[in-house]
Amino acid sequence: MVKAIRVHHTGGPEVLTYEDISIAAPGPGEVHIRNEAIGLNFLDVYFRTGLYPAPKGLPFVPGNEGAGVVLSVAADVQDFKPGDRVAYADPMGSYAEERLIPAVRLVKLPDAIAFEQAASMMLKGMTAQYLLRQTFPVKQGHTILFHAAAGGVGLIAGQWAKHLGATVIGTAGSDEKVKLALEHGYDHVINYRTENFVERVRELTGGKGVDVVYDSVGKDTFEGSLDCLRPLGMLVCFGQSSGPVPPFDLGVLARKGSLFLSRPTLVTYVAAREALVKASSELFDLVAKGIIRIEVGQSFPLKDAAEAHQQLESRKTTGTTVLIP
């Protein structure tokens, strides 16, 4: 038996229970790993509350992101062996001391990257990769707006976008978070609690607007994000921490300048193993070279996952958060 967090019914942080679970021997194509660190993401909140249904129903072990060591492998697994350092961003089930995972969803972790770094950047870092390199490929001369600039994805994206040659504007909810984002690649960071971010973006861009807005906030920022775009600009909605975006008239996109709207997910972008390896390799390379700094903002014992969720939802966290089994 090993310890894990399980959700027996959806709801608030209190539904996260710390209990014993059993781990079977690896089946075909599976790897048995010991988690050394586990990433915390807003995606976990969506599944805990029931906003997103758990893929295999209730009860479930939440969490998609982690890093650890291979304990054993199925006879048909060739790419991994006991002792290998590994990391992953799916499937669900990371809030546990140990777990089984399909070998095709694992990547080998370079020695230069610590387990805590890997667990806090796999989902977030590969999210930044597909956003900046695929959904809207950022290039020299682009101007971008990234909401939640001091969050886990935001801090990685700021550094990466600056490396790509963009002018990087962010939003954050406190002076402390503004300062943190400015230290991670952002040229300008708007405190949305004291400034109107739409007016400030228009001012910073000379009235032209930005080429792309990356928005994980959802309901509270959606309309304003559209108003920050230049004609033919793109709004990339990749999360909804403030709630789902209500239905709206698609004609709004035409009236505001023939805008583009996308709702991508990491799962789609890394569904093929080749794409997973490519995205993670690009991320690892930039981290190893020091172009992207991964700093863990908070860590909690796995048993205190409920407290970690409370901190995340109240927007008291900065950067990345990890759970330690």
TrEMBL record:
InterPro entries: ADH-like_C, ADH-like_N, ER, GroES-like_sf, NAD(P)-bd_dom_sf, QOR-like, Quin_OxRdtase/zeta-crystal_CS. CDD domains: QOR2. Keywords: NADP, Oxidoreductase. It holds the Pfam family ADH_zinc_N. NCBIfam families: PRK10754.1. Its EC number is 1.6.5.5. The keyword Electron transport does not apply. It comes from Phyllobacterium ifriqiyense. Residues 11-323 form the Enoyl reductase (ER) domain. This is NADPH2:quinone reductase. GO terms for molecular function: quinone reductase (NADPH) activity.
